[in-house]
Amino acid sequence: MAYSYKCSISFGLVYIPVTLHAAVKAQDIGFNMLDKKTMSRVKYKKTCEECGDREVKPEDIIRGFEYEDDKYVVFTDEDFEKLKTKRDKNITIEKFVDIAEVDPIYFDRPYYVNPTGAENAYALLLRAMEEENRAGVAKAVLGNKETLLILRAHGGQMLVNTLFFADEIQKNPAKEVNAKCSGSELALAKSIIEGMSGEFKAEEYKNEYRERVKEAIERKVAGKEIVQAKEGAPSAAVNLMEALQASLKDLHKPAKKTVRKSAPAKREKRA
Question: Per-residue DSSP letters for 85-139?
Fold first, then answer.
């Protein structure tokens, strides 16, 4: 889905025109691909293999589905539009559910839902979902893809999350773990969990690796070498029980206080 998308929410016989705005934005550091010898930018071109690798312009590219080897049926934007019903073009709420019942594995991307009309109906739906503690499961064709959605109240605003369909969720290829643990090991593990428990505050977590990359870029630009990142002290534990006991002991260690050196007193000037 694009960064913003105009559509309507269908709530019973009520229609609410809205715009969806992306609620998240990747903060990745972009690197360019360079030729190792010339240090020039490497660019990718779309070429026609049977045309002597001739570059094909965007306006000359169409979509085709290969139904047999080297045999295609062509689809245009008009073909896709013909397949959409009026219902498809709206975010049609089909059911209201407890958000806690939706497994997080189904969640994809969040979007802010902002009304562009019918604000009373928007406020009514938002308040009703808040007070009933319910979220609306909906579907819509966004672009050329039908998307499963869930609308929910979030801090006085309405959010919609795209969801994966059930057939898009893959099974774990690994075998089920059947290892056993002793009662004392389990008790220690629970104690560690209890000692490390607290409220989730997203602002407490920073992308430390990205910051190190930024610092490395600045050092490179300044003609300096990259400094090796500091490694944590390796664990001396040789078995699971020792590792658990050492972990629990570390939790009970008092935090180191940073002692600030006081500034030297200023000498009074003599007359």
Answer: -TTTTSEEEEEEE-GGGS-GGGEEEEEEEEESS-HHHHHHHHHHHHHHT-EEEEE
Q: Is residue 151 within 8 Å of 139, Cβ to Cβ? A: no
Inter-residue contact 93 to 160 (CB < 8 Å) = no
Residues 6+ positions from 244 with CB-CB distance below 8 Å: 185, 188, 189, 192
The residue to which tokens 């010339």 are assigned: 38
Q: How many helices (H) and strands (E) does the chain have?
A: 5, 11
What are the angstrom distances between the C-alpha of 63 and each of 73, 75, 94? 8, 6, 32
What is the number of residues in the chain? 271
Nearest CA among 248, 234, 238 for reference residue 184: 248
Q: Return the DSSP state at 41.
A: B
Render pLDDT for 89-144 as a digit per residue (tens, 0 to 9): 789 999 999 999 999 999 999 999 999 999 999 999 999 999 999 999 999 888 77
Angle between helices 183-195 and 240-251 (to 10 degrees): 30
Entry pTM? 0.75
Name the DSSP letter for residue 177: P
Catalogue all structural domains in the chain, each as residue range(s) with its CATH number: 7-23+87-167 (2.40.290.10)
Task: List the Cα angle 109/115/120 in 5-degree steps.
Answer: 130
Q: Contact 112/21 with Cβ under 8 angstroms?
A: yes
pLDDT at res. 1 = 53
Tokens linked to 203: 């602002």
Q: Could you give the CA distance from residue 166 to residue 152 in angstroms, rounded to a whole number?
A: 20
Residue ranges in the chain modelled with pLDDT below 70: 1-3, 85, 88, 232-238, 254-271
CA–CA distance, 123 with 113 (Å, rounded to integer): 12
